[in-house]
Amino acid sequence: MRKELTRQQYHDLYYYMRLNRAVEDTMVKLFRQNKIVGGLYSSLGQEAISVGTAYALEKKDWLAPMIRNIGALLVKGVPPRDVFMQHMAKYDSPTKGKDGTSHFGDLDNLHIVSPISMLGDLIPVMTGVAMAGRYLGQKIVAMTWIGDGGSSTGVFHEGLNFAAVQKAPFVLILENNLWAYSTPVKKQVPLENLADRAKAYGIPSYIVDGNDVVAVYATAKEAVDRARAGEGPILIEAKSFRRMGHAQHDPAEYVPKEMRAYWEARDPIALYEKFLMSEKLLDAKGKKEIEDKIDALLAKDREFAENSPMPPAEFAETGVYCTGDDCHKIRPKWERPVAEVTPPRSSVAAVWTVEGFGAGKSSGGANAPIHFGDTEPAAASASSDGNRAGKTPAKAPAKKPVKTVVASGASRKARR
Ligand SMILES: Cc1ncc(C[n+]2csc(CCOP(=O)(O)OP(=O)(O)O)c2C)c(N)n1
Ligand SMILES: [Mg+2]
Questions:
Q1: In principle, which of 144, 247, 323, 386 could form an S-S bond with 39, CB 3.0–4.6 Å?
Q2: Proportion of the chain in helix, strand, coil states, percent, rounded to 5
Q3: 144 — phi, psi (to 5°)?
Q4: Per-residue pLDDT tens for 2-60?
């Protein structure tokens, strides 16, 4: 650990690591009282990674957490009560009780993209966020996390390659905690350092001690600054250890005792506390103040969460499918110029037309179909000049089979 941050920054890192651990400890208690609805994961011993990396982001930046990144959510500004309520599937939770784990985000204020269960899929998603920010001239950085196991998925490689070739301002944290379920990392990746995966995509990488919060923060800050400056994506391998089982159900008896003992002696919070004390950045009084602050916050938030109602039964059938305006505020733009969506000199004549296609109304407006098959195909003979634009011929009878078709969606529908 090096001494070069401000006193406030040192204290923030300590506060958030302690908060991260205390929030998860509280949830273990809730789990044992049968109040947690879904699976419960633990980042015990990995708090320095979530906290140190997220702390390197600015308010305008974006992140998408994985299951062991509650610490990153707390740093970004998610209140502990939301984390509790989400896991208890309460009506006041961010997803109003629709989800019992961490699948929630905040696109409007905190810039958090909800995690996706499919490991690795957040990599192309956050690459897209990074690229969108660049198109908008926002100078933002997008960050997400992936495990040692998740780094072997196809989408990890596709996503990182895409981010690299697009030079997206994206920072990927590879949390190597040595286990993926019961599979040790050595049995699933023939590499000593998973950071070497970056070489395949021609992007820079770092290796950092994931139990040293100052080193994690300093490395992440450098990576975030470089990505923001336009250097493209950066991979950081943070080496650590998964101290609990995969989730609460897993006692992880397959982990060798010596390995566990080695890492338990390197607890990131204990190490950091020792450093802060020796550098006179924290004393017993300051430590007690932080503990009291966390205790008071969590007691209040836990009570709030416990008193929050479960969703009403009728709510079960609402909000399941996208219903347009009452589902989301982001409006897709379907309206593209007719010339742009119509091949002007195609050698293949269009043999049917779709009413409204290319007419330029959005989903919030008139009836422009989103894709073929949304509306009945019009008469096969209606267009023969190879250009559907602007034509609105009479519709074919509803179930009349169309013999010659060029679009598979329409084809399936016509044959039904
Ligand atoms: C594509 C995909 N395959 C499998 C799973 C099931 N699964 C969830 S977590 C997990 C292990 C992940 O291990 P790792 O990436 O090392 O993360 P860790 O749990 O150690 O944080 C697996 C296989 C999944 N969610 N997505
Ligand atoms: Mg792992």
A1: 247
A2: 40, 10, 50
A3: -145, 175
A4: 668 999 999 999 999 999 999 999 999 999 999 999 889 999 999 999 999 999 999 99
Residue nearest atom 11 in ligand 1 by C-alpha distance: 180
Q: Which atom in ligand 1 lies closest to the alpha carbon of residue 155?
A: 1
Nearest of 332, 401, 404 to residue 371 by alpha carbon? 332
Spatial distance between the Cα atoms of 276 and 415, rounded to a whole number of angstroms = 72
Taking only the tens place, the pLDDT of each residue in 288-329 is 999 999 999 999 999 999 999 999 999 988 877 777 777 777
pLDDT at residue 327, as a whole number: 76
pLDDT at 396: 37
Q: State the CB neighbour count (10 A cutoff) for residue 279.
A: 11
Determine the residue of 69, 116, 119 to mutate for testing ligand 1's pocket, defined as the one with the most ligand atoms within 8 A of the Cβ atom.
119
The answer, yes or no, to whether any atom of ligand 1 lies below 6 A from the CB of 177, is yes
Sequence-separated (6 or more) residues with CB below 8 Å from residue 190: none
**Distance of CA 237 to CAs 59, 146, 177, 207, 342, Å?**
24, 10, 10, 5, 46
Q: Which atom of ligand 1 is nearest to the CA of 66?
A: 21
Q: What is the pLDDT of residue 223?
A: 98
Q: What's this model's pTM, rounded to 2 decimal places?
A: 0.82
Phi-psi region of 316 (alpha: psi -120 to 50; beta: other; left: phi over 0): alpha
